[in-house]
Design goal:
- The protein is of the alpha+beta class and 363 residues long.
- 28% of the residues lie in helices and 39% in strands.
- It has a six-stranded antiparallel beta barrel with strand order 3-12-15-14-13-16. Strands 4-11-9-6 form a four-stranded antiparallel β-sheet, with no helix packed on it.
- A hairpin with a 4-residue loop joins strand 14 and strand 15.
- Helix 3 runs antiparallel to helix 4.
Length: 363
């Protein structure tokens, strides 16, 4: 203790000018001043903000019953992975029988009209019938063709695939069983019914989503919105998962006075879950020389920040601008004196500040 006090008293009488502190190597050792080289960085950690992982709207679907009926079987449940067009459930629907019957009727009438149309076309070419007669056959054929297409589209809307409709046309065998299929490859997020339940038309059965891409919805405090921009990087705390900001909201949430920022997460990650709340750090790319130093390397005076640059006689006091903070580190930028090879005082700056202010100005 006496040794440290003696060193401080001796140092207070060391010759110094406004922006310089002169100190010998022995004094530097006695005061525990440690010097190290600046570490340059390109990405500036700005601040942390609460975030939530969400699914893009275009990747989330509600699978509904296209017809009213009774659920006879459920094939999948929450968390199951499914393929596109995979059968999720079986539904018995009396209404489906009516649609199939109408389709078979329209299909038969179209086939008869087509036969008459082709026959009359040949007779017209041979000069046996008039052009008016052939036009009437053509009109009738087109009318029945439109009816068949309409009936077929109603079956497709009801949930029958083209393969099932072609099989119906060839076998003419009606079936009340409707296969409810997945519209995408994805994961079942929710099951909304049970087997044996009777459903109305368009009643929801499942919620399914493609999780190949996820978003971060970040709540940015309104006072910080001007410090971020589209394209900034986002890191999810305690992970190596990153995202990129693609949208900054145009309105403030009146409940918490935050602005929504949306970021697209890079790649797929098994550790992330839709709806999960996480803490995110906004990272910005710097266009100027930027460095990260321990908090102990920064000296504050009259609201300004300084670092002590090592030189041949001691240290030069250099003003810096603080542009970001982490737990135990500070991100700074400064004058041309700061380069990747510059050595500054990382520890013991309290003694240097006392000497500097004692001879070079008032605190």
């Amino acid at each position: 203790m006496n040794k440290l006090l003696f060193s401080l008293l001796f140092l207070s009488h060391t010759l110094a000018v406004a922006n310089d502190v002169q100190i010998t190597q022995s004094q530097l050792n006695n005061l525990g001043i440690k010097v190290d080289t600046l570490k340059a960085i390109k990405h500036i950690p700005l601040f942390y903000a609460p975030s939530r992982i969400v699914i893009p709207p275009s990747q989330e679907y509600i699978v509904s019953a296209a017809q009213a009926g009774l659920i006879s079987k459920l094939n999948v449940s929450i968390g199951d992975s499914v393929e596109k067009n995979q059968t999720l459930a079986l539904l018995n629907s009396p209404e489906l029988l009516s649609l199939q019957r109408l389709y078979l009727k329209a299909h038969s009438e179209k086939r008869l009209a087509k036969t008459s149309y082709q026959r009359d076309k040949k007779l017209l070419q041979e000069g046996v019938i008039s052009n008016r007669r052939w036009q009437e056959s053509q009109s009738k054929y087109n009318s029945f063709l439109a009816e068949e297409n309409e009936a077929k589209q109603l079956l497709e809307i009801a949930g029958m695939s083209s393969k099932d409709i072609n099989k119906l046309a060839s076998t003419r065998r009606l079936s009340s069983q409707l296969n409810v299929r997945s519209p995408i490859k994805g994961v079942i997020l929710d099951r909304l019914v049970v087997a044996g339940e009777r459903l109305d038309i368009l009643a929801p059965l499942y919620k399914v989503a493609n999780l190949d891409q996820l978003w971060l919805e970040i709540n940015i405090p309104q006072e910080r919105i001007n410090s971020i921009k589209v394209g900034d990087k986002v890191l999810i705390e305690n992970t190596d998962i990153s995202a990129k900001i693609t949208l900054l909201g145009q309105s403030v949430n009146p409940k918490n006075q935050t602005i929504l920022a949306r970021a697209i997460i890079d790649g797929t990650h098994s550790t992330l879950r839709a709806g999960q709340n996480v803490n995110s750090q906004i990272i910005q790319t710097s266009d100027q020389a930027t460095f990260i130093v321990p908090n102990s390397a920064i000296a504050q005076s009259e609201g300004k920040a300084y670092v002590f640059i090592r030189n041949s006689t001691g240290f030069k006091v250099s003003p810096v601008k603080i542009i970001g903070k982490q737990q135990n580190s500070t991100v700074i930028t400064g004058t041309d004196d700061l380069t990747a090879s510059t050595k500054i005082a990382f520890k013991g700056t309290v003694a240097l500040k006392a000497t500097w202010l004692g001879l070079g100005g008032d605190e």
